[in-house]
Amino acid sequence: MNNDHPLDRLFAEARLHAPFGEALDFGFATRLRAVLAASDAEPAFADLIARFSWRFSAACLPLAIGLTIFLTIQYPYSLPEGVGGLVSQWMELLPLGT
Amino acid sequence: MFFFDTTRTTRKVETEIPESEWVARAKRGDEDAFVHLASVYRPRIWSTASRFARSRPELEDLTQDLFLKMWRGISSYRSDAPFENWVMTVTVRGCYDFLRSNRRRRESETLVDPQESRDDADPADERARSRREAWETVSLLLAHLEAKDRTVITLLDLEERGVRETAALTGWSESNVKVRAHRARKKMRDLFHELGLDP
Questions:
Q1: Which of A90, B74, B172, B195 has its CA 20 to 30 A from that of B11?
Q2: Which helix or strand (DSSP H or E) is residue B32 part of?
Q3: At what angle do helices A6-15 and B174-194 cross, to 10 degrees?
Q4: What is the residue-level pLDDT of chain B in tens, covering all 199 positions?
């Protein structure tokens, strides 16, 4: 890098700047111990579900496709034909009093 | 016997324990030993991490994450290299991960320098203002670089580390570091002219 370039002077100046001041010692050990304790704690059930949620969502699509194919093969004559058939089949399940 | 100052004695004993002993204790899961090591290395970690953060709260979070990584990984530390090297390696790689994972968010955020108001309140402090402005300009230029390039430039030009040390800290080859530094500096120079920052 050319030493006469203004960028070098910028680096030299920026090097001397401590943007966020010094690290404060007050309460450091307590905060660190709290973080370490939290990291060592057993995760709750909800945390475990949340951790795996993205994997579930990725697995849902092939599972749904597989389930559809399985049902189509198992019940080839009882599945509704088209959207109209699907609606009328579901309508039968509604307690409409007819 | 009851008037014996135990605090002072404990402090004296603590300073006499060699670092290798603290590290060995921390590796065995001694939290007190780890906290001691963390407070010894904190200024160095803070200084390096401050080159990657955009605000003090972000810097606090980043350093806390780094300490957590060290606590989780200290059992993998092998005593054949200085402990400081291991600490700085975890720091630099953690900062690089931080840059990668926060890149999109960082592009939409502005730099928050708490010293800004203090410098402005004291117009006589031209030197400090000049340094702050230089830091802001460098941060602006660095924000346009990829995370890898930014890490290399930060270590070489802001931390004044050598190519070999940068390669060791990042885990990239020396030739990779040199090529990245060359490209990144060229990009920064071009951007410097494009933005009309020439004096």
A1: B74
A2: helix B31-49
A3: 110
A4: 445 555 555 555 566 788 888 999 999 888 999 999 999 999 999 999 999 988 888 999 999 999 999 999 998 888 788 999 999 999 999 999 999 887 655 555 555 555 555 545 565 578 888 888 889 899 989 988 999 999 999 999 999 999 999 999 999 999 999 999 999 999 999 998 888 777 6
Tokens of B28: 């065995």
Same domain, B151 and B95: no
Any CB–CB contact under 8 A between A17 and chain B? yes
Residue in the block written with tokens 């370039």:
A5
CA distance B134 to A10: 5
B1/chain A closest Cα distance in angstroms: 30
Q: How far is CA B184 from CA A2, A61, B34, B154, B167, in A?
A: 14, 42, 37, 11, 16
Tracing tokens 């926060």 back to the chain, one arrives at: B102
Of B71, B113, B141, the CB nearest to A19: B113
Contact B84, B41 (CB under 8 A): yes
- Asked whether B199 and A6 are in contact (CB, 8 A), the reply is yes
B135/B31 Cα distance (integer angstroms): 37
Residue A54 to residue B66: CA distance in whole angstroms: 25
Q: What is the pTM of this model?
A: 0.70
Residue A1 counted as domain residue: no
Q: Which two tokens stand for residue B23?
A: 């590290």
And the tokens for B5? 């100052």
Range of the domain at A17: 6-93
Do residue B39 and residue A36 have CB atoms under 8 angstroms apart?
no
**Residue numbers of the domain that contains B179:** 144-199
d(CA B150, CA B128): 24
The answer to whether A41 faces chain B, any CB pair under 8 Å, is: no
What 8-state DSSP symbol labels residue B74?
A: G
